[in-house]
Design a protein that fits this description.
single chain, mainly alpha, two-stranded antiparallel sheet, two-stranded antiparallel ribbon, 4 strands, flat
């Protein structure tokens, strides 16, 4: 029988065919959607199984390599004793090919890339969003990769055993080096992902011990690449030099101490614009940028949930940050300060790059609220004492000098707050403008510097103190007037770009 239409009239043959076509089209769409969902789930499950398989293979290879290194070292020590030798026995250094294979394998399962396909264009892009933050279960593997695979060859003077030298020759190798540096920074600055498995590899140690261990290992690895040496050898060229190692050092320095203005900075005077006299768009600091990583840790913590000014900061003072967070910030601070001091003391370094990085340090780190409470004194101690000849001012004054020169127009015109405008912090959650935080931090740092506070006349640096006090005077003129009120709390209108908003100034700052 003919099927009636909605108005009761029977359907024609053409209408029936159209209805059937709609039914078939809906069925095809449902089948295509189901196929897409199943394909997505299968790809995810296959990727998880593949990474788990690679983890097992990696653990087996690593355990064999560690066992081989122990056997060779024991044999060398025995032979050394028979020959009555007094020299030390070097650790086993894996061949560069083995190091590259192990590194690629680790990056495959620990830092997976995400493929995104744009429809209907069909364009495929590779994303690394959050992929360079390791899971807790991969922490022991990361520590072993640094200790047994990368560090031995990097620390050895034999260039043929350096695992990084072959990387710098190819684009794939350069990208591998960038990923390793990003993982180095993120493993310190970001909280590790819990992961889906609670079990850890065989022979692993406690999580807290792993954290303290890999922090030391990563710090040691980065210091070799940056020519920093240990805390007593800053500015002295390490053994990691000669041949292509100089090129690797420059590459690592450009990635870790980036001379591009980060996205959260309001300073549009980038290094490129200074060189070419043009205004450029802001560039992203990148996941390997030490200054940006330290700023994020000090403001919001490794997990990104802390407040810039803790609610009970006035009561806790030096304990306003957790010990783990403070240790991470201390390590990053030492790396940054030591790198800047080494750049300033190196006559071969680019003057404009040094000036820009020093300006970034003042504008992004010294504007952190309660900086001297969030860091240990040992973390910023190198800023406060004079290195080299007694005629040199403390590095803190040198940083300020570069900041003033880099932002000479705004500073001389009385608009220093424009250079300190940051977009990654909101005045409603942090009721202290950057100019106020910078003023408070410089007062605290200046009080603890014998070359600037006037307590030690023999070591007093007159020119450095004069420059510091002149800069503090500039900040006092730019600070909100409510800062100097005798009341416990004061409301002040603070300009943010073209708008002004009332805030209750933080009495702690």
């Amino acid at each position: 029988a003919d099927q009636p239409s909605s108005n009761g009239t029977p359907l024609t043959a053409a209408q029936k065919a159209m209805e059937q076509r709609k039914i078939r089209a809906e069925a095809r769409a449902r089948t295509a959607n189901a196929t897409t969902i199943q394909s997505f789930i299968r790809s995810k499950l296959t990727a998880i199984r593949a990474r788990e398989e690679q983890r097992a293979i990696y653990d087996k290879r690593m355990s064999d390599l560690i066992a081989l290194a122990g056997i060779l070292k024991k044999s060398a020590m025995h032979q050394n004793q028979q020959n009555k030798g007094t020299g030390s026995v070097e650790d086993y250094i894996p061949p560069p090919a083995t190091a590259s294979i192990m590194t690629v394998q680790f990056l495959f399962f620990a830092c997976p890339s995400v493929l995104r396909k744009k429809y209907p264009e069909g364009q495929i892009t590779i994303e690394h969003i959050n992929s360079l933050v390791l899971e807790v279960q991969d922490m022991p593997r990361w520590a072993k990769l640094i200790r047994y695979i990368l560090c031995p060859g990097v620390r050895n003077e034999n260039l043929d055993l350096d695992p990084i030298l072959p990387w710098i020759q190819t684009n794939e190798g350069k990208r591998r080096l960038e990923k390793i540096l990003c993982v180095c920074v993120s493993s310190i600055s970001k909280k590790q992902k819990p992961g889906k498995r609670k079990s850890s590899p065989k022979g692993s140690i406690a999580v807290d011990d792993i954290f303290s261990e890999y922090h030391v290992l990563v710090d040691s690895f980065l210091r070799v690449l940056l020519w920093l040496g240990d805390d007593n050898m800053v500015g002295q060229k390490c053994n990691y030099s000669g041949g292509s190692r100089d090129m690797i050092h420059q590459k690592c320095q450009s990635l870790l101490m980036q001379s591009t203005c980060p996205s959260h900075s309001g300073n549009h005077a980038t290094l490129g614009s200074k060189r070419h006299g043009t205004t450029q768009h802001l560039l992203s600091g990148g996941e390997s940028d030490l200054i940006g990583a330290l700023r994020a840790v000090l403001l919001y913590g490794p997990d990104g949930t802390s407040k810039p000014i803790p609610a009970d900061a006035e009561r806790l003072r030096d304990n306003c940050m957790k010990k783990d967070e403070k240790d991470r910030a201390n390590l990053l601070m030492k790396l940054i300060v030591d790198s800047l001091v080494a750049l300033i003391g190196n006559n071969d370094s680019d003057a404009m790059t040094t000036s820009f990085l020093s300006s970034r340090f003042v504008g992004e780190i010294l504007t952190i609220p309660l900086l001297t409470w969030k860091l240990s004194p040992s973390a910023y101690a190198r800023c406060l004492y004079t290195a080299g000849t007694s005629s040199s001012p403390p590095p803190l004054v040198t940083f300020i000098h570069h900041f003033i020169n880099w932002n000479a127009d705004d500073v001389s015109n009385g608009h220093i707050e424009k250079t300190l405008n940051m977009t990654d912090i909101i005045l409603t959650t942090c009721p202290a403008p950057p100019v106020l935080c910078l003023l408070a931090n410089l007062v605290q740092l200046g009080k603890g510097c014998n070359s600037l506070n006037g307590l030690d006349q023999a070591n007093f640096h007159y020119k450095g103190a004069a420059e510091l006090f002149n800069f503090i005077a500039t900040l006092i003129n730019a600070a909100p007037q409510g800062t100097f009120s005798s009341r416990m709390s004061a409301v002040e209108w603070v300009s943010t770009g073209s708008t002004s908003s009332p805030i209750v100034l933080s009495d702690v700052v």
